[in-house]
Design goal:
The chain has 72 residues and is mostly helical. It has one domain (2-71). 90% of the residues lie in helices and 0% in strands. The N and C termini lie far apart (49 Å).
Length: 72
């Protein structure tokens, strides 16, 4: 039971970092979101962890792409 509860918090953090990575430093928050999602999967909450990993990767890449197009 303890593993699921701590995994759930890391999963929520992973999703939060994914949303932040679109607007603010996508490289840093995208990687942190992926790491938090992996910790969530390791703690036993596979669905929320994989959702965090995938959303952090996609939104981090999208944020990086948008920033590159705005600067150039």
């Amino acid at each position: 039971m303890f593993k699921n509860k701590s995994g759930r918090w890391f999963g929520i953090d992973s999703l939060f970092m994914a949303l932040i990575s679109v607007a603010v430093t996508p490289l840093i928050f995208g990687v942190l979101g992926i790491a938090a999602g992996m910790i969530t999967v390791a703690n036993g909450s596979q669905y929320l962890g994989m959702l965090g990993v995938i959303s952090s990767a996609v939104l981090g890449f999208s944020g990086y792409y948008f920033a590159a197009n705005l600067i150039a």
